[in-house]
Amino acid sequence: MTENAPSFGLLLFPNVTQLDLTGPYEVLARVPGAQVHLLWKTLDPVRSDTGLTILPTATLADAPRLDLLLVPGGGGINALLTDEEVLSFLADRASGTRYLSGICTGSLVLGAAGLLEGKRAGTHWASRGFLPAFGATPVAERVVVDGTLFTGGGVTAGIDVALRIVGELFGEQAAKLVQLAIEYDPKPPFDAGSPAGAGEGVAADLLARMRPMLDARAAAVAAGVEALRRRRSRRAG
Fold first, then answer.
1. Which of 16, 25, 31, 234 gets the highest tally of CB atoms within 10 A of its CB?
2. Global model pTM greater than 0.90
3. CA 180 to chain CA centroid, nearest Å
4. Which helix (H) or strand (E) holds 89?
5. Buried b (16+ CB within 10 A) or exposed e, 151-176
6. 41 and 14 in contact (C-beta within 8 Å)?
7. What span, in angstroms and rounded, lies between the C-alpha atoms of 104 and 171?
8. Along the 237 residues of the chain, how does pLDDT read in single tens digits?
């Protein structure tokens, strides 16, 4: 399958953080012969959390066989943590997909689907503390690899994750060719991409601004954990 026409599936959903999606998309779409599918329940336009409208290319029901299934993050993940259709799709497809990936808070969706139990995983630094609720061990790294599971930190880390996956599938040379083609050579003007680099004051300011969102996420994670418990109980019964 991967030798001829690699097939990559990226979940698209309302209020996704578009760079979580489009960063990996840009990398994966440059793999020769690659088919990149943007998957959602319908083919209707989907609005990102900053207003960018994106068109799905396939529905969950019609999704083809995939080499990679990737879940981005964003404010919209709260609703996905108890969305039976999405979680069932992820759980059903995970066993037949060569690689599984969560970008930013997309990792929490994988957790709600029961796919992080006993796994090392990463996510956005402000949501890392939610990972243990789904049985995962949180890791403070930009890219976290546990077997065939690739997870990453917030937003821009999706580019790094996708390059690592391309390297795993097709070799280092192929990944380097893609990286050079997109001139991915980041040199940010400030060392503020992590709480440690940004400093205590900046981190505290941002956390204060994020508090309503994080409180809502905590409630959504609790609901997701309970929904996962019920699904497992039904299967066991």
1. 16
2. yes
3. 23
4. helix 84-94
5. bbbbbbbbbbbbbbbbbbbbeeebbe
6. no
7. 25
8. 445 689 999 999 999 999 999 999 999 999 999 999 999 999 999 999 999 999 999 999 999 999 999 999 999 999 999 999 999 999 999 999 999 999 999 999 999 999 999 999 999 999 999 999 999 999 999 999 999 999 999 999 999 999 999 999 999 999 999 999 999 999 999 999 999 999 999 999 999 999 999 999 999 999 999 999 999 999 887
- 70, 81, 104, 108: the catalytic one is 104
Torsion sign across C-alpha atoms 152, 36, 78, 96: negative
Cα–Cα dist 153/107, whole Å? 9
**Amino acid letter for position 124:** H
* Largest distance between two CA atoms of the chain: 56
Alpha-helical (H) ranges within 113-171 are 157-170
d(CA 25, CA 36): 7
Q: Look up residue 22 and give its two tokens.
A: 């489009």
State how beta strands 58-59 and 137-138 pair.
Answer: unpaired
